Every structure is written in C-alpha cells, then in structure tokens.
C-alpha cells in the first residue's frame, strides 16, 4: 500500500510541476505572437492553472469514476476560498476590490447556481456541457473587452530575453504529456486508496485530489502575500472558480456525460454555494473592503468543519 501512496504523491507533484511549466511556456509563446499581456493573463494563464483539474476530471471520466471528476471541481472551488484565500489572509490581509464584489462574484455565483440546477437530475449532460463551454467563450470575450478598456496604452510584451519559441514549444508538449501522465497516476491511485480506506471516491476527490490540484493557486497566493502583492488575489481566485466550472466540467461533460451523486448534489454543491455567499459577506463592508486575519482563521475553522462532516 505504501507504493500506492507514493504513486499518488508522485501524481500530485507531476501535476504541479507540469502545470507550472505549461503556464510558463504558454505565456512565452503568446508573447512571441505579440498577444497583449493582460489578455495572456486572463486567458492563457487562466486555462493553464485550470489544466490540472481538467486533466484529472477527463481521466476520471474516461476511467469510469464520475464522482472524482465532479468532486474535484466542487472541492477545488471550496478549498480555493476556504484554504487558499484563508491561509493567504493569515499572512497578510487581502484587499477586496469593488470590481470583485460588483462584477466577478455575481458571475461566479451565477455559474455555481447553474451547476446546482444541472446537478438536480443526477447528470451533467453533453448539452449542458455545451452550454457551459458556450458561457466560457462569452466569459473570455467579456474579460478581453474589459481588459482592453482598462489598458489603452502599451499592451504588448517585449520579447527580448524571453524563452526561445522552439524551447517553449518543446516544454509545452512535455508539460501536456506530464499532465496526462500525472492525472492518470492520481486517478488510478485515488481509487485504490478509497478502496483500501473504505471511504468513497467522492470524499477522497473532494479532499486529497481537490487540495492537490489547488496547490498552484496556493503557492502563487502565498508568495504574493509574502511580497504584500495581494491586490488581485480575490479576483484571481474567483476567476479560477469560474473557469473550473465552465471549462473543466464543460469540456469533461462534452467528452463523457458526468453523473452527479446524491451526496454531491445535495451536500457538497450547497456547501460550495454557502462558501461563495460567505466570501461575499466578508467582502461587503465598504469602509475597509478587506479579508482580515481573524476572518481567515474563521474560514479555516469552517473548512475543517466541512471536512469533518464529510466523514
């Protein structure tokens, strides 16, 4: 059994490393193509940071473990708020920009409620997946228009000293292979761990897999907090949650319809909605508009309560 845990850990590490290099190489290629920096951040980087969740969910769907695919996304969205933001707030209080309250949060809550509606019949069908992918295209278009409106001046990155394009392409291809292999290792060994510990794959995916695929966001956020560069953290986390639902579940259900277990539909997704509502309440006080250390502590306590109730 020790070998299974070792392979599981290796899968998580491979996803993390491959995801990082995928983002780096994608950004380098985008700069070579002279795509504006803001658009790179909102599209290329956003897709790159969601790549581990996407590959894990696709592999789970292909392997016949739909509860892992759905649990991965729902668990990631909960841990992004209740762990990533909470731990970051413990290091340094996080500002909550008005744009996150007025524009980003309503979109996140809207797509979360849509997922809740889709889950009520026990499936996310291919048609519903197409709806999610269509909304994804609209969301990206909205971000691009908003970014261009906010950056009227120089938007193209200089490429001097940047990664050579052929190196970036090789790294991109190797990273994609690493993500696929890491996802395969993770899904197969998560199933074995669930059987060995006699717990459901849903619980393992919502805890171990979801937290593992959120490690890139965690690392980025903690580094930003240590540098006191926290102005865009809330927006990034909200954007990541939106992308998880629209892209990961959208593309996965197009490939293979995802069955939604009773516990996920009636317990986990409502928790995700409740966590999203809590985030709004923490962002609302206009006088200070920040998530403080004690609020971060409260979020971690609530997350631990959720994990306790899972078992």
- Strand/helix succession: HHHEHEHHHHHEHEH
The profile of the biggest β sheet is: 2 strands, antiparallel
The spatial strand order of the largest sheet comes to: 1-4
Termini distance? 21 Å
Query: How confident is the prediction overall: mean pLDDT?
Result: 83
Domains, number: 1
Q: What portion of residues belong to β-strands?
A: under 5%
The CATH architecture would be Up-down Bundle
How many E-type strands? 4
Quaternary structure of the protein: single chain
Radius of gyration: 19 Å
The secondary-structure class comes to mainly alpha
Specify the number of helices: 11
Which SSEs are present, and which pair or pack?
Elements (H helix, E strand, L loop, with lengths): L1 H31 L4 H26 L3 H26 L2 E2 L2 H22 L3 E2 L1 H25 L14 H33 L3 H13 L1 H12 L6 H23 L2 E2 L2 H22 L6 E2 L1 H18 L1
Describe the structure.
This protein is mainly α and 311 residues long. The chain has a single domain, classed as A middle domain of Talin 1, CATH 1.20.1420.30. 81% of the residues lie in helices and 3% in strands. The chain has helices spanning 2-32, 37-62, 66-91, 98-119, 126-150, 165-197, 201-213, 215-226, 233-255, 262-283, 293-310; strands spanning 94-95, 123-124, 258-259, 290-291. α3 (66-91) packs parallel to α8, α3 packs parallel to α10 and α6 runs antiparallel to α7 (201-213). The longest helix has 33 residues, at 165-197. The radius of gyration is 19 Å and the shape is globular. The relative contact order is 0.23.
Summarize the structure.
The protein is an all-alpha fold and 311 residues long. The chain has eleven helices and four strands. The strands form two sheets. It has a two-stranded antiparallel ribbon with strand order 1-4. Strands 2-3 form a two-stranded antiparallel sheet.
């Amino acid at each position: 059994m020790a070998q299974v845990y070792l392979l599981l850990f290796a899968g998580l590490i491979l996803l993390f490393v491959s995801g990082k290099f995928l983002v780096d190489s994608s950004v380098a290629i985008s700069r070579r193509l002279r795509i504006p920096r803001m658009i790179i951040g909102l599209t290329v980087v956003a897709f790159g940071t969601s790549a581990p969740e996407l590959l894990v969910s696709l592999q789970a769907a292909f392997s016949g473990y739909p509860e892992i695919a759905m649990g991965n996304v729902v668990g990631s969205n909960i841990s992004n708020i209740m762990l990533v933001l909470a731990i970051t707030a413990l290091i340094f209080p996080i500002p909550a920009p008005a744009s996150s309250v007025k524009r980003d949060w309503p979109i996140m809550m809207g797509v979360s409620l849509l997922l809740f509606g889709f889950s009520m019949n026990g499936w996310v069908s291919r048609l519903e997946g197409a709806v999610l992918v269509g909304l994804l295209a609209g969301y990206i278009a909205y971000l691009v228009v908003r970014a261009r409106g906010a950056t009227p001046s120089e938007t193209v990155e200089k490429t001097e000293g940047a990664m050579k394009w052929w190196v970036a392409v090789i790294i991109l291809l190797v990273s994609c292979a690493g993500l696929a292999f890491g996802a395969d290792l993770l899904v197969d060994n998560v199933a074995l761990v669930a059987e060995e510990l006699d717990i459901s794959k849903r619980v393992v995916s919502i805890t171990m897999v979801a937290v593992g695929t959120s490690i890139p966001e965690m690392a980025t956020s903690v580094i930003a907090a240590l540098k006191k560069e926290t102005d865009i953290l809330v927006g990034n986390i909200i954007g990541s949650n939106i992308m998880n639902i629209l892209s990961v579940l959208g593309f996965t259900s197009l490939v293979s319809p995802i069955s939604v277990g009773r516990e996920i539909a009636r317990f986990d997704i409502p928790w995700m909605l409740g966590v999203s509502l809590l985030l709004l309440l923490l962002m609302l006080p206009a006088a200070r508009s920040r998530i403080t250390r004690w609020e971060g502590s409260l979020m971690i306590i609530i997350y631990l309560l959720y994990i306790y109730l899972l078992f």
